[in-house]
Automatic annotation (TrEMBL):
This is Bifunctional 3-(3-hydroxy-phenyl)propionate/3-hydroxycinnamic acid hydroxylase. Residues 11-351 form the FAD-binding domain. Keywords: Oxidoreductase. It comes from Pseudonocardia xinjiangensis. The keyword Oxidoreductase applies.
Amino acid sequence: MELDGAQRGGHVLIVGAGPTGLTAALLLARLGVACTVVERHAGIHPLPRGVHLDDEGVRILQRAGVAAFGDISRPAAGLRLLDAKLRPFAEFRRDRVVGEHGHPESNLFDQPDLERLLRTELTRHPSVRLREEVEVTGIGPPDGRPVLVALRDTRTGAREQVGADAVLGCDGAGSAVRDAIGATLRDLRFTERWFVLDARCSRPPSTWGGVDQVCDPRRAATFLPLPGDRCRWEFRMRSGETATDLARPERLAALTAPWGVPAGGLEVLRAAEYTFRARLADRWRHGRVLLLGDAAHLTPPFIGQGLGAGLRDAHNLAWKLAAVLRGADEDALLDSYQAERAPHAEAVIRGAVRVGRAMTGGQDIAAALRRPLTGLLLRVPGVRAAAQRGISTRYAPGPLVERRRHRRDLTGTPCPQPTVRVDGRSVRLDEVLGDGYALLATGPVAPDLQATAQRLGAPTLRLGPGPADTVLDDGGELRTWLAGGRAAAALVRPDRIVQATAPG
């Protein structure tokens, strides 16, 4: 059988109902693309997994229609590095309540709560269908029209074949879709065993409001104070240790005692071994079958970017795929997905690996000296800013990102999202930009950029006097941003990346 397609947007089969798959479905639905999401398990996975999103990730959820994320999360103050006696020696502050993307810079939450929000939003889109306890057993030629996918009902064993205009593999580290297109994961040389403890605390430890990374060569650890009475600890495991051994009450008591939490004060939600890996798929696309999230990349959790990377994949791909299904150039658009996202995903993974090795790796003299030296360096504002820039979204020039005119040019970077006033209302910028391209301008726009904007159907949003479809007042934030890039105008893509600028 062939899946029913939306009249103007085709039909996409999404494999995996985690946050990345559900967000991709919501973004596509907003663009008129019907989706079926298949998930081999039933219901929301009850155990905590992802717990951190930055402001760019929350902005993507906003774009997907999830307005209540603030109700299930709490802002975090940033990251501190502690010595073996839990004394801080360096600090990354990420505590702006309204960051560059219009949301708190750092946010802690419980993944089941997020998935519940995403599923609730999914019910508001009649063009999206969620099918649980259904697994993919095979994919026909990925460049077929339609792509044929073999499915099996895990309850009854019933089998069927469906056709889709595209298939998105959002099915995690053990991705069946990745196997089906012959992609393999490249090892970026990091594999460590960690013991993850999620618990409710009868008396949660007093904290500074952010994440603590304990840089102790004998037992590296991470502590995260989650919303409500929940806490997460992550402890690097030693050779020969097992999760069963570490989960014994007396061992838990020893592990959590430095935070003043006895084992008797814990209600254990999960105590399990996890292997933190750094991996990157060599191929993200074959025809109209594409990989997103953990199916395409695996990152250690040290800088809290794993879930955010998957949401960025969905945001980058959704508008391109929708355009392809409406007849746009398939190879140019879909090839740009991996070309843009893979280098950034690798930069984030390598950043996490560097943090993991510098803060927790090694027990020799060199490693012991490296940790305090790293702490001293991170006290220097310029060093902290450089570390942050290393993982910030910035796409290289390509078909959808013009070559930079100078080092500070804004092309390939996200447009910020301030609150703006338009027609007497105060709203976040993305609510004005809509689902397509937009041209932000402070003055006259170069004819070639104006022509490109018109061809793409981009309305002109002007920050000041002059001809425009809409006049914005943002208190000067966008003007300052454009001035910092020595630009008078910026053409912003549907995923809020700057495609081109005009000199100021």
